[in-house]
Amino acid sequence: MNYRIENLIDRKTVENRIKELAKQIEKDYAGEEVYCVGLLKGSVVFLSDLVKEINTPVIIDFMSVSSYGSETVSSGDVKILKDTDLDLRGKHVLIVEDIIDTGLTLEHVIRYFKESKGVKTLKTCTLLSKPERRKVNIDIDYVGFDVPDKFVIGYGLDYDQKYRNLPYIAVVVFE
Ligand code: IMP
Ligand code: MG
């Protein structure tokens, strides 16, 4: 399929916003240890920028969940491909995502954490959010940017596994 790429949010704007989020997180956790759990692979670029700006003890862990195909969106059946490595009992956990689209993935991850991890507090942080596409009502504590209902790439987000390394956010426009 033919497509072109259009810039959406430039590098400086993304970097500045990530710094703001980090300062807010730092303030909210006020010297407490924060366990940042990134959802692979999309969150990696955002997470690595974010944690460098948080001046409070940060512990990093990752989890990998399967995304459903577009034809099965309604099932929202999310499988855990890789669970966290660390024992998160009694910890302050911040789930870090690249983008919240329908919200189904995050809803399942939140439920899983609440049912089986015994964390002390659970919050969520995403670089991008597409509010127009939301199918479930979920609370997101930290949002970098709201984006329109378009396919976005860069800063960890891929199109067919490519473009995760773009240092800015762009839109894929199908022609
Ligand atoms: P949700 O469960 O519908 O919220 O989907 C979230 C996941 O779908 C994200 O973690 C991304 O991996 C993927 N996703 C949703 N929208 C986009 C997009 O515009 N570009 C790239 N990946 C996307
Ligand atoms: Mg993802």
From TrEMBL:
Catalysed reactions listed for this entry: IMP + diphosphate = hypoxanthine + 5-phospho-alpha-D-ribose 1-diphosphate; GMP + diphosphate = guanine + 5-phospho-alpha-D-ribose 1-diphosphate
Locations listed in the record: Cytoplasm
Highest taxon of source: Bacteria
Pfam name, any one: Pribosyltran
SUPFAM superfamilies membership: PRTase-like
GO MF term list: guanine phosphoribosyltransferase activity; hypoxanthine phosphoribosyltransferase activity; magnesium ion binding; nucleotide binding
Gene3D superfamilies in the record: 3.40.50.2020
Catalytic activity, EC: 2.4.2.8
Keywords, in A-Z order: Cytoplasm, Glycosyltransferase, Magnesium, Metal-binding, Nucleotide-binding, Purine salvage, Transferase
Entries under InterPro entries matching the protein: HGPRT, Hxn_phspho_trans, PRTase-like, PRTase_dom
Cofactor: Mg(2+)
Keyword check for Transferase: yes
GO biological process: GMP salvage; guanine salvage; hypoxanthine metabolic process; IMP salvage; purine ribonucleoside salvage
Residue stretches making up the Phosphoribosyltransferase domain: 7-159
Primary location group: cytoplasm
Pathway: Purine metabolism; IMP biosynthesis via salvage pathway; IMP from hypoxanthine: step 1/1
NCBIfam families, per database record: HGPRTase
UniProt family annotation: Belongs to the purine/pyrimidine phosphoribosyltransferase family.
Protein name: Hypoxanthine phosphoribosyltransferase
Organism: Fusobacterium pseudoperiodonticum
Gene expressing this chain: hpt
